[in-house]
Amino acid sequence: MLTIIADSNIAHLHDYFNEQTLNHPIQVISMAGRDITADALQQYQPDVLLIRSVTQIDAKLLDTNQSVKFIGSATIGTDHVNEGYVSLRGMRFANAAGCSKHSVAQYVMSAILQLRPEYWASNTSQSDKPVKLGIIGLGNIGSTLARYALDLGWEVLGYDPFQSASVINNASVDKVLAQSDVISLHVPLTLTGHSELPTYHMIDADALAKMPSTTMLINTSRGAVVSEADLLADLNQNPERQVVLDVFENEPTVSAELLDKLTIATPHIAGYTLEGKLRGTQMIFDAFVRSYGEKGADILSIKQTDLMADLLPANPYHWSQLKQLPEKLPQFYDIKADDRQLRDSVNEQAGAVLGTDFDALRKNYTLRREWLFD
Ligand SMILES: NC(=O)C1=CN([C@@H]2O[C@H](COP(=O)(O)OP(=O)(O)OC[C@H]3O[C@@H](n4cnc5c(N)ncnc54)[C@H](O)[C@@H]3O)[C@@H](O)[C@H]2O)C=CC1
Ligand SMILES: O=C(O)C(=O)[C@H](O)COP(=O)(O)O
Fold it and tell me: Residues that bind substrate, according to the entry (predicted)?
């Protein structure tokens, strides 16, 4: 019997991980990601952990455990996982790189075009001053976002010191900060000692001072990439600055003082489309199958399966159609509705959105559809 502990927010968990798909006796225990603790591991002795971003994988969770062999995170980000520790313990780890890259890029485009609809027409062929979109981090999401921007004829100013120079990786960080109309952050959260150029607080008072107050800032990466204290000070000085946050430094708690000053704020749902979440599950399922396959039939005999196509209903959302009819944007994605829900969740007494309410918004989120980029 194979025992799996899984975050109950993993989309279609039981469609993927069951005795038919795995051709093996299993028990799947699903629980809130924050409840996957050392005590839970002690109680169930799982072979496999399937998590999302809210479960910290570290010595505190695993030091006393000897049963876990595979950990799969159905997320792009891995800052919640101490990969060095996992590897030292001989456990295998997989994430879902790129799973929601279009979803996040579409969230960013929705935010920009909702706030500045005139940008639909502001392209290199129709204007001598096209929109300049600054992108920091040009991996899966940043480079996908660049494709949407270039498709609208915008200019991309991109900065990623770990990628080769290219048509989109074409600027210094200072140039991105000083010359962009909009800056969107797509870096992993990295800390001093773990990266040559850590991203923790990369947007601080110095960086904000380099950005004209007309520059919009969008953060969908991780909250701590932006210093919230410095952002608050900047917004007090430049109340006209438009700031869009999907992630927060003290997540799942969000300060009402900051929320009041943001133009759009959403509860970490930029990647929450049906496709984005399902792809995340498919990717960790595939990694699990590969991982156990390598260990040979003595552990499991697993049938390969690709359920995603079967589980997805027909998709009526085409980027090419939206470009023809920009007024349909709220039907494609009504970002303001997500913003309202977060603001309605403020607990006035606490002066904040409480963690439990933030988590509930995410758990009960109606997954959007990812537009077809054709
Ligand atoms: N809000 C949401 O719902 C979601 C948020 N995310 C976040 O977005 C992040 C980025 O995702 P991907 O693009 O798929 O990751 P990725 O790993 O494909 O790309 C990240 C890029 O950032 C670059 N980078 C690293 N340090 C940098 C620095 N100091 N300055 C500039 N660039 C730097 C890397 O070279 C890499 O090319 C994830 O790590 C995750 O934290 C991901 C999915 C959904
Ligand atoms: O993939 C990532 O990285 C993300 O930020 C996820 O979309 C976050 O979703 P949860 O794992 O917190 O459900």
Answer: 53, 75, 272
Q: How far is the CA of 161 from the centre of ligand 1 (A)?
A: 12
Instruction: Give the tokens for residue 55.
Output: 């479960």
Binding residues: 53, 75, 160, 246, 271-272
Q: In what order do the strands lie in the sheet with 346-347?
A: 254-255, 352-353, 346-347
Strands 182-185 and 132-136: parallel
d(C-alpha 64, C-alpha 84), whole Å = 17
According to DSSP, the residues that pair with 182 across neighbouring strands are 133, 216
pLDDT above 70 (res 133): yes
Q: Which amino acid appears at position 30 of this protein?
A: S
Q: What atom of ligand 2 comes closest to residue 270's alpha carbon?
A: 7
- Report yes or no on whether pTM surpasses 0.95: yes
**ipTM confidence score:** 0.99
Angle at CA of residue 185, ends 179 and 188, nearest 5°: 140
- Residue 183 contacts residue 136 (beta carbons within 8 Å): yes
